[in-house]
Design a protein that fits this description.
Length: 254
């Protein structure tokens, strides 16, 4: 997932970034409420980890503003304000979950996983393209019945392409969707992951399901790769009396 962490204490934000990055997520960090709104309107985040006590707009106001703008991804609130009334206020402003400080990093990671599963369950449970099958709930992938092991980031890239078969995704759009803001659009990170996916999904073939559209980007083929027509032999001629005809003298070799 691509995750936005909104936290003004740098020690906490960097620890959270490190833990979530280790789990395969793309993580951006901002330190105040106004930046949170700007970044959330710019990038396609699938989860926001939001501190309540922030410079400028507090977390409650940020969460309410996100929901008013139609932001539907889960919001996990972090705060030292852990009274019942504070938790109720966070949920009433649109938060999906609430974690009180200080917290164990293992619990934060577990809550992120749970919110990610909830997001996956809201999407179609399985994606099937030709003989390729993806299960977002388990990150499972099969090709012609064969199980394929992918990393979290490889699965995210393949899932994005599979949800839009035939649609071309430029490299900068893929970076924007799946990597954090530290990756520049001229980075070769997409090429590296596409090469890895081809090796695992297409047995390394460049004419497989994952297609490079030169000068434009990448897509998953909407129609099966062209393997060429299967030759059909001409039927043998049959004589009118039901017996196989005998070649004429002119058709015999000398």
């Amino acid at each position: 997932m691509r995750i936005l962490v909104v936290e003004d204490e740098s020690a906490i934000s960097e620890a959270v970034r490190g833990a979530l990055t280790a789990d395969g997520h793309a993580v951006d960090v901002v330190a105040d409420g106004n930046d949170a709104l700007e970044w959330a309107s710019t990038y396609p985040y699938e989860l926001v980890v939001l501190d309540v006590v922030l410079p400028g707009l507090d977390g409650f106001a940020v969460c309410a503003a996100l929901r008013e703008r139609g932001f539907n991804a889960p919001v996990l609130m972090l705060t030292a304000l852990d009274s019942v009334s504070d938790r109720v206020s966070g949920l009433d402003h649109g938060a999906d979950d609430y974690l009180a400080k200080p917290f164990a990093m293992a619990e934060l990671r577990a809550r992120v996983r749970a919110l990610g599963r909830r997001t996956a369950d809201d999407r179609s449970p399985r994606i099937t393209i030709h003989d390729l099958e993806l299960d977002p709930a388990t990150l499972g992938v099969r090709r012609a019945g064969r199980q394929i092991r992918l990393t979290t980031r490889e699965f995210a890239l393949l899932e994005l392409l599979a949800r839009h078969p035939g649609q071309i995704f430029a490299q900068d759009r893929l970076i924007e969707a799946l990597w954090d803001a530290d990756y520049a659009s001229e980075s070769n990170i997409v090429e590296v992951y596409v090469r890895s996916l081809r090796r695992k999904v297409d047995d390394g073939r460049r004419d497989g399901l994952i297609e490079t559209v030169r000068g434009s980007g990448y897509r998953l083929r909407a129609t099966p790769p062209d393997v060429g027509p299967v030759p059909v032999p001409d039927p043998a001629p049959v004589a009118t009396n039901g017996h196989r005809p005998v070649p004429s003298e002119s058709g015999r070799g000398d």
